[in-house]
Write a structure and sequence with these properties.
The protein is mainly beta and 119 residues long.
């Protein structure tokens, strides 16, 4: 199985950019689809996007469209979430998760990293 650790969160100003990392251990990240999710206080978990084992990237609908970019580095065994033009409503805990393929559930989750955007 794979273990995932997110990093790169913090407190930024509105309009700033931030890059989150999801680093895998145990098994290579390239063996899985890696998805990003976020959960704001009092709200349901929201799908941000996913990069498949084959490198196909799909983004969720909503306010992140056009501002967030997902990439993966198989050499570093990592997947990244680059967030631009951050807004206060982007404040949330961000999680990465792994699944075998698009018909599987996300069975492996990181512990999350807090992103706080102050206006």
């Amino acid at each position: 199985q794979v273990q995932l650790v997110e990093s790169g969160g913090g407190t930024v100003q509105a309009g700033d950019s931030l890059r989150l990392s999801c680093t895998a251990s145990g098994r290579t990240a390239s063996s899985y689809d890696i998805g990003w999710f976020r959960q704001a206080p009092g709200k349901a978990r929201e799908f941000v996007g996913v990069v498949s084992r084959g490198g196909v990237i799909t983004y969720g609908a909503g306010s992140v469209s056009g501002r967030y970019t997902i990439s993966r580095d198989n050499v570093k065994n990592a997947v990244y979430l680059i967030m631009n033009s951050l807004r206060s409503e982007d404040t949330a805990v961000y999680y990465c998760a792994a699944r075998w393929d698009r018909v599987s559930t996300y069975d492996y989750w990181g512990q999350g990293t807090q992103v706080t955007v102050s206006s």
